[in-house]
């Protein structure tokens, strides 16, 4: 249980929330929204928090700081990478210059990615990487002599970021489109059919969906591309798992259908692996569930282990060659250039994070989390308020029949030693890979207890 302390004591006093209120905007929250919890420390998989009333909590971070801190906090290897790079130089422009951290990181990414992906653009964030991927596809079509192709096909239930281009390919109904009428108009397919594990399967098994539903969805895909193909530059999807759009797990066969259709119509296939990359779904990249390779792939979030903002766009050698051979001098360059592109600190820690990921045996880590979440979240399926419980890799989801009371569930989970950030009708977890079996059990038990306490 939390411990009440007098205002003005501790590392962060009770006035911090009051100082924050009306000063700082928080994600998707008004200036006068609920008081945030103050972070006073973080180590391993645990956060030290204080409420506006001065209550202290220690909680397992079941969110990995929005899916990024896969190695936890204050990791010695990542800390050292930042310190070492700071001792050399923290930032230089990337226009006309290069440096070892950027080159090494790009080499690692190309080595980890499927063989056709051979070129790397280093971006500031996931949203920016999506913007770059969309621009790349439009430039590709122009270089190929198809200048009328400037729209995209995306999925209902998808989420790709909050900048304008990225928003335009997010779900047009449940996303933020209505607030921004000037967004580019895109085309959308229905949400792909849901997939489930076959009985008794684990991470080495397969995701199964209703074959008739997959066939019907594929027919809709083919019809949409036949109708709109001449104005489409590409197709963008999150492979297998739709993240912030609803934590929807779908049939890998849909990715195979997307690959066939893109090839038939000369479209670039873009996979947004920002949430699914680096092992989160049980495969290193989500695309591996289908054995499909995209033309363009975006990665971010866990790329730096949660230390600094960085993302990357990987492009196939074929697509890169088409752009490079453009008849337009300007079209031969990828027309994007962030000020902090390839920031050396971010590249250095990302490179170290990939080394840690390889050395720690991420497969075993994710399988342990998956097994622990299946067991610890199973009791939630029996609650009256719960519609569904699903687990894929190091992702656990409790879907409610109605909207979640975000503040109440967050508080209830904290009282059980777990930090979560629910949304819509979902209470979910994407814990750090370094979580022990006891940590995972605590996460599942805390989520179940919070849902039971608040929603019954």
From TrEMBL:
Its EC number is 2.6.1.62. InterPro entries: Aminotrans_3, Aminotrans_3_PPA_site, BioA, PyrdxlP-dep_Trfase, PyrdxlP-dep_Trfase_major, PyrdxlP-dep_Trfase_small. The gene is bioA. One of its GO terms (biological process) is biotin biosynthetic process. Pyridoxal 5'-phosphate binds at residues 126-127, 272, 338-339. Homodimer. It comes from Arthrobacter mobilis. Gene3D superfamilies: Aspartate Aminotransferase, domain 1, Type I PLP-dependent aspartate aminotransferase-like (Major domain). GO terms for cellular component: cytoplasm. The record marks 28 as: Participates in the substrate recognition with KAPA and in a stacking interaction with the adenine ring of SAM. Catalyzes the transfer of the alpha-amino group from S-adenosyl-L-methionine (SAM) to 7-keto-8-aminopelargonic acid (KAPA) to form 7,8-diaminopelargonic acid (DAPA). It is the only aminotransferase known to utilize SAM as an amino donor. The keyword Cytoplasm applies. Substrate binds at residues 66, 159, 301, 337, 421. Belongs to the class-III pyridoxal-phosphate-dependent aminotransferase family. BioA subfamily. SUPFAM superfamilies: PLP-dependent transferases (SSF53383). This is Adenosylmethionine-8-amino-7-oxononanoate aminotransferase. Its cofactor is pyridoxal 5'-phosphate. Keywords: Aminotransferase, Biotin biosynthesis, Cytoplasm, Pyridoxal phosphate, S-adenosyl-L-methionine, Transferase. It comes from the Bacteria. The modification N6-(pyridoxal phosphate)lysine is found at residue 301. It is found in: Cytoplasm.
